[in-house]
Write a structure and sequence with these properties.
The protein has 270 residues and is of the alpha+beta class. The longest helix has 20 residues.
Length: 270
């Protein structure tokens, strides 16, 4: 397998192609004590602001991932969270908390297939429905629709803020199998499992779709972290029709190759 030093995260690329330190995405914000009134005042001053403090339940030990990234916006949904890049117009990472109970509730829930543009994002940041039309790419979920435990969560999973341009064969076959394999792991594993899913882009030669110039990923990653065992492993998959699921990487190797320490302060066995 080639070195993933060739890959760079969505959040570390600027329009000017300035080089960023890959590790910068996982620098946590300073811990601060903020009163409820302080939070209300801050949100009143900037009603469009969204941060992960509104949905700590999607993160290990209810401690939201706090990342400082250029041109990005954290988005909270009922059953998942997304750190979204206005540069690539895709998620940087989508985060889910999965367990047996949630997946049991998700079984048999009908898909809505009603994709929509994310109104919480300014027009300059968001992907549009027309960007994908005739592009030859699927709107590929990062937080899977099949993981959603109720109708509202299902509907929210079709936000374009949760999508990347994905090879259709990849999305409908091998990626779908990988998502199913992760669900099987969750169903046979005690406790909560947190899944972090997102795109990776190679240096240079970026491909985009639509007038909005939505970036097409070269690869996709899925970090699987079980809290009870404190173990994590990672799948990397090419965004191609002939991709195959290889042996999972250790979390340490994923961090070494990509500099993406999405677990941050959680010392998963490496």
């Amino acid at each position: 397998m080639r070195s993933f030093g060739l890959f760079i995260s969505t959040v570390l690329l600027s329009v000017s192609a300035q080089a960023f330190d890959f590790g910068a995405i996982t620098k946590p914000w300073p811990k601060v004590k903020e009163t409820v009134q302080g939070i209300q005042d801050r949100r009143a001053a900037n009603p469009d602001a969204t941060d992960f403090s509104a949905c700590p339940q999607h993160f290990p030990r209810n401690q939201p991932m706090r990342l400082v990234t250029p041109n990005s916006k954290p988005l909270c949904f009922d059953s998942f969270a997304v750190l979204y890049s206005g540069t690539t117009k895709t998620p940087v990472v989508a985060i889910e908390k999965l367990n047996r109970e949630r997946l049991q509730a998700a079984k048999g829930l009908p898909r809505t297939n009603k994709f929509y543009e994310e109104a919480r994002l300014p027009a300059s940041m968001r992907a549009g429905l027309r960007d994908y039309q005739g592009s030859g790419y699927d709107r590929g979920h990062m937080a899977p629709a099949a993981d959603m435990p109720n109708d509202n969560a299902m509907a929210q999973s079709f936000s374009l803020a949760n999508m990347v341009p994905q090879d259709p064969t990849n999305n409908q076959k091998i990626w779908s199998k990988l998502e199913s394999d992760v669900r099987k792991f969750v169903e046979r594993t005690p406790g909560d499992t947190f899944v972090y899913t997102g795109p990776l882009f190679r240096h240079g030669g970026r491909k985009t779709i639509g007038k909005g110039q939505v970036w097409v990923p070269d690869m996709l990653f899925k970090v699987v972290y079980n809290v009870d065992s404190n173990k994590a492993f990672v799948y990397l998959l090419e965004n191609t029709a002939n991709a195959h699921i290889g042996k999972p990487l250790s979390y340490a190797e994923f961090v070494r190759q990509t500099k993406m320490d999405v677990l941050g302060s959680f010392p998963a066995q490496r």
